[in-house]
C-alpha cells in the first residue's frame, strides 16, 4: 500500500454510472506479476464517496432496468458470450500476467465463467413463476419472481474471471443492478470483462465497479440501498461479510474455505486416479477452493504413495506464460511465505515429507513466487497442514482401513465444499454419496464443480447462506417471490353478500 502513484504506471479505473473514472483516493496498491514481481498497474482503494456514487448510480438505473423486457436482457448476454469467446486469448493473457496460472488454465477460468453467461442468456426459461387456476370459486393464485434492487459482489484473487462472471450476469439478467468489488490483487482481467459487458449493451449504471480493501467491503455490507451480497473468499472474511450484511438486513451468500478430501479405494483404476489426484492437487498451484488437497488412502491404496510422488515429480514448474508449464507461481510473496511456513510446521509436527517443493528453481524467473509440488504422508487431524487450508501446491495424505473410516474422517472435518471417491464399485460410490456430509460429491471426478444447469452447493463451514451461486438457486437468491391471489368479476356475477370468514369459497 502507498499514498502516491508514479505517473508512468497504468491505473485501474472505477466504473460509475457507465464511465470509467480515475479514483480520487490517496490509497493505492500495486498489481504485481507473481512470476517476475513487475508492477503491472496500480489499483485504487475507493473512497466512501465513490462507493456511495456507485450505489446511487445502480439505484437510479434499477428504476428503468427492472422494467426492461426479459428478452432484451437475454439478448445482451447472447452478445456478451460472443464477445468473451472472441477475446478469449487476450483475457487469458491478462489473467496469467497478474494471477500467475498457466495460459491453458487461464482460458479454463474464463470458459467456466462463460458457461454462466450462456446460462444468463437463457433467463427467459429460468425466471418463471407458478400459476394455480381456480384455487377457489373464480380465484387464481400465481407468483412473480421480481428483482431485488441493487446487489453487490465481492470476489477473490484465484478466479478473477470465473467468479465475477458467476455473479453479475445472473444478477443483472434477473433484473437487478450490480456493484462489483474485484480482488485488489488481480483486477485487470475483471475490468476487461466489464468493458466487454458494456460493449455488449449493459446500460449505464446497471453495472458499477469499485476497488478496495476492508473499508470498501464494510461499506458494501452496511449500505442501506444494497439488498443482497454475494461473496467468494476466505472463511474469516466470508464470516465477517455474512454477519455484517445480514445484520444490516441484506440477503447474503458466502462461499468460503475448504479442505477437500478424495477417498482412494484399492479397487480404483490406479493410473486414472493418480493422474486425477496430481492434476487436482497441483493445478493452479493449489489455489482453488475446490482443489483436492487431501487424499484418504484406503487399504492397499496406501501402497501407491511412491507412484504418486513420481508422477508429481514430472510436473513442470515455470511461469504461466511458458509452454508446457504445469504449476505456476502462487499469487504473492506473502502467500509464498505462509505456504513455506506451513510446510515447515508439517515437518515439525511429525508428518513425512515425501516430496519437498520449497527449493524449486526457475531459471529466468528467480524472483517468482514458486513452490513446487509438495506431498506429505502420515498426516493426522490436529496437524496444521490438515486443519488449515494451505491454498498452495501441497497434497496431504491420510490413511484408513475401510471406507467407513474414511467417511468418518471427512465428516469430522468442519468444511464441506467438495469431496470425491475413486472406485470401480457402484455400491461403494453409492454408499459414499449417501453417507458423506459434503455439499458437492465427485465419483471418479476429483473437482466436482457443477455446470451452471445446477448450482454450486458447498456446505457446512464452507458456506453461509442457504442458496448457492449460479444455476437455479441463484435465480431464487436474486429475486423476491411475490404471490398474487386474484378474483375477477364480470357484470353478470352475482354477489354473495358479506363474508366474515377466512374462506375463499
TrEMBL record:
Instruction: Kindly indicate whether the keyword Mitochondrion belongs to this entry.
Output: no
Q: What is its EC number?
A: 1.2.1.27
Q: Which domain of life is it from?
A: Bacteria
Specify one Pfam family: Aldedh
Q: According to the UniProt record, what class of enzyme is this?
A: oxidoreductase
InterPro entries xrefs: Ald_DH/histidinol_DH, Ald_DH_C, Ald_DH_CS_CYS, Ald_DH_N, Aldehyde_DH_dom, MeMal-semiAld_DH
Q: Which UniProt keywords apply?
A: NAD, Oxidoreductase
Q: Does the keyword Oxidoreductase apply?
A: yes
Tell me the ranges covered by the Aldehyde dehydrogenase domain, including all copies: 20-484
Molecular function as annotated in GO: oxidoreductase activity
Entry-linked CDD domains:
ALDH_F6_MMSDH
PROSITE patterns named in the record: ALDEHYDE_DEHYDR_CYS
Q: Can you tell me which family this protein belongs to?
A: Belongs to the aldehyde dehydrogenase family.
Listed name of the protein = methylmalonate-semialdehyde dehydrogenase (CoA acylating)
Organism, by scientific name, is: Coralloluteibacterium thermophilum
